[in-house]
Amino acid sequence: MEVKFIQAKELKQKPQDETKLGFGQIFSDYMFIMRYTEGEGWHDAEIKAYEPFSISPAATVLHYAQEVFEGLKAYHCADGSTNLFRSTANFNRMNNSAKRLAMPEFDEAFANKALHELIAIEKDWIPKSEGTSLYIRPNYIGMNPYLGVREASEYIFYIICGPVGAYYSNGLAPTKILIEKEYTRSSQGGMGFAKTGGNYAASLIAGKEAHDKGCDQVLWLDSAQRKYVEEVGSMNIMFVIDDIIVTPPLDGTILPGITRDSVLTIAKSKGYKVQERMVSMDELIETAKSGAMSEAFGTGTAAVVSPIGEFVYGDERITVAGGKMGGKSLEFYNTLTEIQYGKTNDPFGWIEKV
Ligand SMILES: *Cc1c(COP(=O)(O)O)cnc(C)c1O
To answer: Which of 98, 200, 230, 337 has its CA 20 to 30 A from that of 193?
Structure first.
């Protein structure tokens, strides 16, 4: 299949002040889109103007949330080139998510090729200041105008992108995390491993209540016992306990983060001990209080590494790492961002040049 390019009638004004980009508010001139029809397969792949498209008020995605998405970034390098970071891993995960939602598979290599074409066209939209990037959002949705509860037979897959600011305006400020005792995000047999809007819908109320209590994010516990740590907000979580990097295993209820995998790989390459195992609330509280837990941090594409300074558990407040960013958190942040921005060589083969 060829990607057809349709010239936009006019191009937008690009943002002038890169310190005010924020996140997810500005979109570039073009988007990639392709359609799926049962019996016909994927067709009509196009790069065309970013603009609203029409959708039936009865469409599957609007009623039954048949949707999966991804999030990744393109980075401007000092030599003027553009880096994409592990995009094939994103499309592979997207197909795994799609399978869970009974959506047809797409050709990952083709999607990645289309992404390269889109980013090449939108190169001038990639901001250049420290910490900024072009955020890329692939989205895949069920389109049938039919209210029966079943998987759709028509879909669209599209990719939009837009410049985003440095996640940290005041350096890597440690976050305050509310340990969520009531709501859970996913359960065994559910869709916790899939990047799908439904998981986010289920999480919004907890996020809102955490913000109302002055916290930045929630820490999700397992749904069966509220005993084991799962994720933090929409990031994976890691601890440094007795100098070992510890993170919950990919047991089907948590998202297999690409940043998680990258940090674990970097940690091993630096000779650190790494354990993928369950961490109970008892262990978290005990080791945080005793100081055996020297660091805790979230990992995800948006923030890369987000240090945790404090856990709020009911009336208790437990400080981690003296409320500061720990040395290993900073080391992982620096190593990963240096690879992403092409400031150092990439020994892992993660970078694709556009
Ligand atoms: C996207 C996401 C992550 C982080 O994944 P990355 O690939 O590292 O960006 C973690 N948890 C949830 C729930 C997510 O949706």
So the answer is: 337
Cβ < 6 A, ligand 1 pocket: 71, 195, 231, 234-236, 255, 257-260, 299-301
pTM exceeds 0.85, yes or no: yes
Residue closest via CA to ligand 1's atom 12 equals 234
In whole angstroms, what is the distance from residue 346 CA to residue 276 CA? 24
Nearest CA to ligand 1 atom 15: 234
Q: Which residues of 129-163 are buried (b: 16+ CB within 10 A; e: fewer)?
A: eeebbbbbbbbbbbbbebeeeeebbbbbbbbbbbb
77: CA distance to ligand 1 center in Å? Answer: 24
Q: Find the mean pLDDT for residues 60-78.
A: 97
Residue 133 token pair:
């990037």
Tokens of 261: 């995998």
Residue with tokens 């809007």: 197
Q: pLDDT tens digits, residue range 256-310?
A: 999 999 999 999 999 999 999 999 999 999 999 999 999 999 999 999 999 999 9
- Per the structure block, which two tokens stand in for 6? 């349709």
- CA distance to 105, 139, 145, 166, per residue, from 154 (Å): 13, 14, 9, 37
Strand partners, 36: 42, 155
